[in-house]
Write a structure and sequence with these properties.
244 residues, 6-stranded mixed β-sheet, 9 helices, globular, 6 strands, alpha/beta
């Protein structure tokens, strides 16, 4: 009993020391912006998680920053180049590794919920980020560039210059839900019929969190599987399946 009490007291003292250190560090600054403080603290916490000093908790319970950091670690471990997205917009952008086809970057959104399905708002938000990053608005306003297609005109359409979309991206969402329910007990689809229709129309790939973990596990066993995983994400319109 005394050992448990001693551990409890030490834990409380450590938390008090941590609070004091944060207060002292912030008090030494001249009225810093809350957003700047949050960014700095979150960055340090993420680094501590990477180094193994902080536990993120059980996968099926993860949400918020913990879920984002866990997914970033998984994707990075698989050998992909994953970078933070723009402030206040997409969570991550994954760039195509060597030998992976198609050579199209992925816009990755990370979502979680107590409910078992993604909402339409989450899918529409991803649509906004893909639309923006891909240069779609600029393409619609100003075309794909290259001026008039003289070759096509002279050959009456038989030959043509190749006009490319500015920078097409593939939209992918990883969803953890319902949060707190063990993976083995999640039996329903995380997409409603309308959500599935929307995802297919936009060519979005939706990955339930446990399915992502299964794919990364396969890559751990065989690094060549990363090429198959990359292709599967790009070919999937709707829900990504568990690897065979």
């Amino acid at each position: 009993m005394s050992t448990i009490w001693g551990h409890h007291q030490k834990s409380r003292m450590d938390k008090n020391n941590l609070k004091k250190a944060i207060r002292d560090a912030v008090a030494a600054l001249e009225r810093p912006l809350l957003s700047d403080i949050e960014k700095t603290i979150n960055g340090e916490l993420e680094q501590l998680c990477d180094e193994g000093h902080i536990s993120l908790g059980e996968d099926y319970c993860l949400t918020g920053n913990a879920l984002e950091w866990r997914i970033r670690l998984l994707v990075d471990e698989a050998g992909f180049v994953i970078n933070r997205g723009r402030d206040g917009k997409e969570d991550f952008v994954i760039h195509p590794p060597e030998k992976c086809i198609p050579p199209k970057p992925i816009v990755l959104e990370v979502k979680s919920a107590r409910k078992d399905q993604l909402g339409q708002d989450e899918l529409r938000q991803l649509d906004d980020w893909v639309f923006d990053l891909s240069g779609e608005e600029n393409a619609r306003k100003h075309g794909l560039g290259g001026g008039g297609d003289t070759i096509a005109w002279l050959s009456q359409g038989i030959m043509t210059k190749r006009h490319y979309h500015p920078s097409p991206h593939k939209g992918v969402i990883v969803f953890n839900g319902p949060v707190g329910v063990p993976f083995a007990q999640r039996t329903g689809s995380c997409l409603s019929e309308l959500g599935l229709e929307f995802a297919k129309k936009r060519s979005f790939c939706v990955i339930p969190f446990p399915v992502l973990i299964e794919h990364i596990t396969c890559i751990r066993k065989n690094k060549d599987e990363m090429i198959n995983f990359w292709r599967s994400m790009h070919e999937t319109e709707g829900l990504l399946k568990i690897p065979e």
